[in-house]
Amino acid sequence: GGTKIDGIMLDNAGMTLFRDRIATPAGDYDATIDAVVSLIDRIGRETGRTGSVGIGIPGAISPSTGLVKNANSACLIGKALDTDLERKLGRPVRLANDADCFTLSEATDGAASDYRSVFGVILGTGVGGGMVINGALIGGPNAIAGEWGHNRLPVVNDGGGPACYCGSTGCIETYLSGAGLSEDHFSATGNLLDARHIAWGANHGDDAAEATLKRYETRLAMALSIVINILDPEAIVLGGGLSNLGRLYKNVPELLP
Description:
Elements: E1 4-10, E2 16-23, H1 29-47, E3 53-57, E4 60-61, E5 68-69, H2 81-89, E6 93-97, H3 98-109, E7 117-123, E8 127-133, E9 136-137, H4 172-176, H5 178-189, H6 195-203, H7 207-231, E10 235-239, H8 248-255
Parallel strand pairs: 3-6, 7-10
Antiparallel strand pairs: 1-2, 4-5, 7-8, 8-9
Helix pairs in contact: 1-2, 5-7, 6-7, 7-8
């Protein structure tokens, strides 16, 4: 992810044998490769086992070029990430979009396992999504199915809104990511806080923090309304760091049209 690399080893029954989290070397491709390789090597040393390697990434492998695209970790864009990792590790590596992995997991044996159509949402360093229908992941010919984060927020006029790394402005991601939430609070108050501290403030009587979260909830509802109008999924599941804001599950459904 944009801020962390989470490593886990599972046995054939799906039981966790190892899990640890390290920081992502922000903006440094070579250091990111080294960090992933080091974590995988440590898993092998500490468990005494090896296995297949699968990695969820904040982006996708372009079917036409084989290179990473649409990654909010911009240092990955245009890189042969799977090939570079395989060279360093000396074994095969499989890459997939992290939101696709999340959605498929939740639709298979997670919060949405009882539903036929599931839209999975990542609200974190970036904003991504995935779609599963009848247990099958919808990928699309361009490997971008579900990537709602780079549509424009519905109320933003052409040419307006914050600049996005993708080259556009007013993208949903620029409002609903962790950085987007912090920047919106800063614009309104002059006080730069992360999501955790904004939530703490709202829970302890800070009217400005409460107003920031209400704006966030309204924007999330507006953005999800596009998904609902097009896909009408039976279930929407939230993931990513901002999914820990428990108030979203009460307030956002009430704001949906």
